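BUG: 3D viewer hangs when loading the predicted structure for this chain

Environment: internal workstation, default settings.
Expected: structure renders.
Actual: progress bar stalls at 90%.

Input used:
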Amino acid sequence: MACEMPGRSVPRDSIGLAPHDGSASDPLVLLSRSAPGGFSSMEYDSTGGLTLRLVDTSHVTAVRAALLGAYAPGRSSDWQERFARDLAGARVAVARWSLADLTDWFHYLQRRMFAAAPAAGMSVVGAGLNPRREVISFVLPSAQARVWAERVLADLHLPCGLVETTVGGPSQVL
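Structure tokens produced before the viewer hung:
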């Protein structure tokens, strides 16, 4: 089954209070919220080439300008020139999720999972967000906890491929 493109946002009334983990002031999350195009991530590969991931690649020029504006102030002119060259020559790839959407989903799901675990006699060992892979991960302490977590997540009718669960081994993408 193919996943919808782009992925849907978390319902606005479900987000609740702003997270206290620093993501509310993370420059890339703020850029993703403010710049057009649905910025998802940027990463350098092993050859030094830069890839920009956007939900709507037609806005790549605006995202390049926003990234330069976010990172250039306070840096040396050599650094600014190199980063501007990297941005100008960057590969552009389509992303399913903006970083802002992934962050919202992460905080929503993290709150749900950590709140539900004690009542069910379960625990969640950890949670993480991987913007490059566009996935949210939950680490569970046992196979039983994983079954519980997957039931809780299934009841939320999440977009496909958004979450993976792990118990000391390979992930199960939901």
